[in-house]
């Protein structure tokens, strides 16, 4: 009798433990989708693919990259904002589509998402063709002064870091350029090399050191960057640059805390991994992991700065 009672008690305890066990955040083998809000071939896309490989390893489930470019990155973020909040559809990219993109074009705002983690920072560069008459940033500024509003530069879309960085700089020195929006760094660089643009502002990765057809005139940074010691930074010409691209992983609002915790832990491991860091180094990106809470705070602070910048420059 006692043995039957003991067995029954154990059965009830095991049943209770089973009911108390947390549900798996990512049930089944459904692939995770990383929506990249810019065109394939650019720095964000390349970093996303390295991250997706790491995510597949960390979670034991396939992670695939989907490029949904356009409207300065807001199209891709809208897709994620409207997705089922189960952790299977995520955005990978900079925060500007949900900060400046919201302020300028009514795109989704950062508080419509859960920022899972920051993965890396992206320094921006002013680039020209090798045969450009502008051999330095000072010479490019001189051309813009001689031809107000006529010297063209390409950028990755309205409200992106390249766009706002250049407009903030130009406004601060009393110059105007002809800003032309693209769907990402890749298409813009192609037109720059083809002679359709006078200059470009892009991630430093687009100005790859092994591309003899491009020259980097300056970086939007406060100090000279490793790997680019001979390239001046905007602080040297008297202007404090905006924050770099704050890239990371984003989930739809309503995603469970359990799913976010699993993704955040995986993100930390991926950012520390050799493959991710080697990819970042090859593209002159800076791996910087921030937790969900830290990333949210940084994005919120950046939103306040960008709101003031957009108002001052009258970009709306």
From TrEMBL:
Coiled coil: none annotated. InterPro entries: BUG, Bug_dom1. Keywords: Signal. Pfam families: TctC. It comes from the Bacteria. Residues 1-20 form the signal peptide. The keyword Signal applies. Belongs to the UPF0065 (bug) family. This is Tripartite-type tricarboxylate transporter, receptor component TctC.
């Amino acid at each position: 009798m006692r043995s039957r009672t003991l067995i029954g008690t154990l059965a009830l305890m095991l049943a209770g433990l089973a009911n108390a066990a947390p549900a798996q955040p990512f049930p089944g083998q459904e692939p995770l989708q990383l929506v990249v809000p810019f065109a394939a071939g650019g720095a964000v896309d390349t970093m996303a693919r390295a991250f997706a490989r790491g995510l597949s390893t960390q979670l034991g489930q396939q992670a695939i990259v989907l490029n949904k470019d356009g409207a300065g990155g807001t199209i891709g973020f809208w897709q994620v904002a409207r997705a089922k909040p189960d952790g299977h559809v995520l955005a990978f990219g900079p925060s500007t589509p949900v900060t400046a993109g919201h302020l300028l074009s009514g795109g989704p705002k950062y508080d419509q998402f859960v920022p899972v983690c920051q993965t890396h920072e992206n320094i921006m560069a002013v680039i020209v063709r090798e045969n450009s008459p502008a051999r330095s940033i000072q010479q490019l500024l001189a051309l813009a002064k001689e031809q107000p509003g006529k010297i063209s530069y390409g950028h990755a879309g309205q409200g992106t870091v390249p766009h706002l960085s250049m407009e903030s700089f130009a406004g601060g020195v009393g110059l105007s350029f002809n800003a032309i929006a693209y769907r990402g760094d890749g298409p813009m660089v192609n037109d720059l090399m083809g002679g359709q643009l006078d200059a470009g502002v892009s991630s430093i990765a687009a100005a790859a050191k092994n591309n003899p057809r491009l020259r980097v005139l300056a970086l939007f940074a406060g100090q000279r960057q490793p790997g680019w010691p001979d390239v001046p930074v905007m602080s040297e010409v008297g202007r404090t640059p905006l924050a770099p691209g704050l890239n990371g992983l984003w989930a739809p609002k309503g995603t469970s805390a359990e799913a976010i915790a699993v993704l955040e832990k995986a993100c930390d491991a991926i950012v520390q991994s050799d493959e991710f860091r080697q990819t970042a180094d090859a593209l002159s990106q800076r791996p910087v992991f921030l937790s969900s809470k830290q990333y949210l705070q940084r994005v919120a602070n950046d939103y306040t700065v960008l709101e003031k910048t957009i108002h001052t420059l009258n970009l709306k």
